[in-house]
């Protein structure tokens, strides 16, 4: 994104802060439940997808020491961890443990 | 046991604060937060931030997804892009805080008294707060919640510093496991909260669309992924709803 | 805008891209419940910050030396902006007049000095 485009984007975003946003909030709230819940649902979808994108980013463009682990191991360990989570009563603890173990084993076996 | 007194506090604010803090320390979230933030601390080390910056981000931002976005994108993306992604990830604070504030309604509670509880609100603090605060006498609720929030934030600060230092000292494989913790934790917590089709589709699509968008080097890849994948998921949800609703 | 590490420092970035975009949702939650007090100190502060950021971006756009605007001398750009603002004030705060004057001034300036 060019410097100019960014400046214009900031202009639009920040320019609204002093006034427009509050009016829109008022209107949106006055509109009644249906439209609000649709907007809420859409925002929820976007936010969830965003978190997924963050997860994918760390796996696919890993920093530092994680980059020394092969991509297949990173992706595989994530999948194994998720599978463990699903299988073991949706336990986050089990999932993380399984994923980490898979990572260590995979990294050791398939070379760093 | 009688209902708690509705107006004047039974204990001085400091003692209530400490009571709240100890409730935080005894909560399971204390350990969850330490675990989460150890991963974040390690991430911040690998991306080149200072330990002071990391701790400051925990105190000022106090939201793990937003912090992950900051840490992993600030070094390479433009400020506007990062700010947009951060703001999208934090929308849930609006309903959370809105649900919480009415609990604090009491004589003598000024708007500026609500600022600290407002800032301290994060998922874990909010969940424990919604559970425990209604049990407190109204006059003591703000002090209690502040204690709770500070106690849990303490866990996060401990985790941040520990993770940072560990990442600096540990051999590569162990450091890699620390770094791997963050995507795992994010995946698990999203999966736990994703009951509806909308959330599941959105997350799955995000995982797939994310790398594609990043590969296309569009800049703001997190933002675009969120918008594209999220909108598709929302449309799928609408389509399913209309099919089920229209079937006669 | 260069990347943050070399430009305005990670601390500014923390505040601008981390703290602010994150905190507004918490603030909005409070506003929603307690009502919008136009005179409250928080609102006044938010508006001051937003206005200051806006001013900063405007200055950056006028003074920037990239893109088509770079072909026009800085003095002309500043002069045109000032002229436009004066016209805006003179025409009883008409945005249309201000923008028109500014545009005409910058075009004339580009023609004569560029």
Which helices and strands appear, and what pairs or packs with what?
The complex is a heterotrimer of chains A (112), B (248) and C (114).
Chain A: H1 3-16, H2 20-30, H3 33-60, H4 71-87, H5 92-109
Chain B: H1 13-25, H2 28-46, H3 51-60, H4 64-73, H5 79-89, H6 93-100, H7 115-120, H8 123-132, H9 141-169, H10 172-193, H11 197-215, H12 221-246
Helix pairs in contact in B: 1-9, 2-4, 2-9, 2-10, 3-9, 4-5, 8-9, 9-10, 11-12
Chain C: H1 9-34, H2 41-63, H3 74-90, H4 95-113
What would you note in describing this structure?
The complex is a heterotrimer of chains A (112), B (248) and C (114). With 112 residues, chain A is an all-alpha fold. Chain A has helices spanning 3-16, 20-30, 33-60, 71-87, 92-109. In chain A, helix 4 packs antiparallel against helix 5. With 248 residues, chain B is an all-alpha fold. Chain B has 2 domains: 13-176, no CATH class; 194-247. The relative contact order of chain B is 0.16. With 114 residues, chain C is an all-alpha fold. Chain C is built from 4 helices and no strands. Chain C has helices at residues 9-34, 41-63, 74-90, 95-113. In chain C, helix 3 runs antiparallel to helix 4. The longest helix of chain C has 26 residues, at 9-34. Chains in contact: A-B, A-C, B-C. Chains A and B meet through helix 1, helix 3, helix 4 and helix 5 of A and helix 2, helix 4, helix 5, helix 10 and helix 11 of B.
Topology order of chain B in helix (H) and strand (E) letters = HHHHHHHHHHHH
Strand tally of chain B is: 0
DSSP helical segment count of chain B: 12
What is the mean pLDDT of chain B?
Answer: 88
Multimer state? heterotrimer
- Which spans of chain C have pLDDT < 50 for at least 5 consecutive residues? 1-7
What distance lies between the first and last C-alpha atoms of chain B, to the nearest angstrom?
A: 54 Å
Helix/sheet category of chain B = mainly alpha
- Rough outline of chain B: globular
Strand portion of chain B = under 5%
**Main sheet record of chain C:** none
Compute the CA-based radius of gyration of chain C. Answer: 19 Å
Global Rg of chain B: 21 Å
- The domain tally of chain B reads 2
SS field, number of helical segments of chain C: 4
- Total DSSP E strands of chain C: 0
Low-confidence stretches of chain B: none
Order of helices and strands of chain C: HHHH
Mean pLDDT of chain C: 79
């Amino acid at each position: 994104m060019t410097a100019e485009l960014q400046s214009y984007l900031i202009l639009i975003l920040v320019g609204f802060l002093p006034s427009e946003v509050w009016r829109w909030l008022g209107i949106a709230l006055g509109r009644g439940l249906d439209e609000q819940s649709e907007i809420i649902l859409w925002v929820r979808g976007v936010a969830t997808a965003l978190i997924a994108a963050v997860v994918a980013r760390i796996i696919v463009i890993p920093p530092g020491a994680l980059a020394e682990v092969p991509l297949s191991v990173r992706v595989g360990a994530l999948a194994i961890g998720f599978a463990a989570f699903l299988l073991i009563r949706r336990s986050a603890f089990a999932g993380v443990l399984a994923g980490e173990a898979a990572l260590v084993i995979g990294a050791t076996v398939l070379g760093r | 046991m009688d209902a708690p007194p509705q107006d004047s506090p039974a204990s001085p604010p400091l003692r209530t604060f400490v009571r709240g803090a100890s409730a935080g320390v005894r909560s399971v979230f204390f350990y969850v937060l330490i675990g989460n933030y150890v991963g974040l601390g390690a991430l911040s080390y690998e991306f080149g931030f200072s330990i002071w910056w990391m701790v400051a981000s925990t105190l000022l931002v106090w939201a793990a997804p937003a912090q992950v976005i900051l840490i992993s994108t600030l070094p390479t993306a433009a400020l506007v892009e990062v700010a947009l992604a951060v703001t999208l990830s934090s929308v849930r604070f609006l309903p959370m805080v809105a649900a919480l504030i009415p609990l604090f309604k009491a004589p003598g509670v000024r708007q500026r008294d609500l600022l600290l509880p407002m800032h301290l609100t994060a998922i874990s603090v909010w969940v424990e707060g919604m559970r425990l605060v209604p049990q407190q006498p109204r006059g003591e609720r703000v002090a209690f919640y502040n204690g709770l929030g500070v106690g849990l934030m303490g866990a996060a600060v401990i985790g941040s510093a520990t993770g940072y230092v560990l990442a600096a000292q540990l051999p590569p494989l162990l450091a890699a496991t620390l770094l791997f913790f963050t995507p795992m934790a994010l995946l698990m917590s999203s999966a736990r909260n994703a009951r509806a089709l909308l959330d599941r589709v959105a997350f799955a699509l995000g995982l797939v669309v994310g790398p594609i968008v990043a590969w296309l080097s569009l800049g703001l890849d997190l933002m675009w992924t969120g918008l594209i994948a999220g909108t598709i998921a929302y449309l799928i949800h609408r389509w399913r709803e209309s099919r089920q609703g229209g079937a006669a | 805008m260069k990347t943050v590490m070399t430009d305005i420092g990670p601390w500014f970035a923390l505040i601008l891209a981390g703290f602010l975009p994150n905190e507004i949702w918490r603030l909005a939650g409070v506003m929603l419940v307690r009502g919008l007090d136009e005179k409250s100190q928080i609102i006044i502060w938010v508006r001051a910050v937003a206005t200051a950021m806006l001013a900063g971006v405007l200055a950056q756009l006028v003074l920037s030396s990239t893109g088509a605007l770079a072909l026009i001398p800085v003095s002309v750009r500043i002069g045109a902006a000032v002229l436009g603002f004066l016209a805006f004030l003179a025409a009883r705060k008409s945005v249309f007049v201000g923008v028109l004057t500014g545009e005409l001034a910058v075009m004339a300036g580009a023609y004569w000095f560029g």
